[in-house]
Specification:
single chain; about 150 residues; about 30% helix; globular
Length: about 150
C-alpha cells in the first residue's frame, strides 16, 4: 500500500558549488519536524550533499550553468523521500557510474564514491538518467520510531 504524503517542499537553485551547503541545510531543516536523531540528520545531510555535488560537478560539468531541483516528501511512518534532479548532460551507463571508485571526471580528481555514499546513508536509492536530458536521484530514508 502506498504511503500518504504528510508534508512536502520543493525548491531549486543555480548549479553553483557554493549552493551545496544551502541545499543540505534546507533539507535538514525541513526534516527537523520529524525530530530525527543526530545520526539520522547527519546521514540526510551527507546524502543530499553527495547528490547535489554530483548534479553540479557531473550533470553540469561544474560550469555554474543550469539549476538543481530538490523535492522532499515526508510520508507516513516517518519516511522521507528526497529527490535531487538536474537537466544536465545525463549518464550514459548508470550501472557503471554507480560502481565504487568509477569516476566520469576526466581529470581524475574525483573519487567516484558519490553513489556509494548515498546508498550507505539511505535505505533506498534510485537513479534515472537520460543522456542530454539530465539525472534524477531518489533517496528514501526511514527514520527510527520515537
Amino acid at each position: 500500500m502506498k504511503k500518504k504524503i504528510v508534508n512536502e517542499t520543493e525548491f531549486s537553485f543555480p548549479a553553483k558549488s557554493v549552493n551545496e551547503s544551502f541545499a543540505r541545510y534546507a533539507v535538514s531543516s525541513f526534516c527537523a519536524q520529524l525530530d530525527p536523531t543526530i545520526e539520522e540528520l547527519s546521514d540526510i545531510r551527507t546524502a543530499v550533499s553527495e547528490a547535489v555535488t554530483n548534479a553540479i560537478v557531473h550533470g553540469y560539468r561544474d560550469t555554474g550553468e543550469g539549476r538543481v531541483y530538490i523535492k522532499v516528501r515526508i510520508l507516513e511512518e516517518r519516511t522521507l523521500v528526497i529527490i535531487v534532479k538536474d537537466t544536465g548532460c545525463g549518464i550514459a551507463d548508470i550501472t557503471l557510474a554507480m560502481t565504487p571508485l568509477y569516476t566520469g571526471d576526466p581529470s581524475g580528481e574525483r573519487g567516484g564514491m558519490g553513489f556509494s555514499i548515498m546508498e550507505s546513508f539511505t535505505d533506498d536509492l534510485k537513479v534515472r538518467s537520460s543522456v542530454g536530458h539530465g539525472t534524477t536521484v531518489t533517496m528514501i530514508k526511514r527514520l527510527s520510531k520515537l
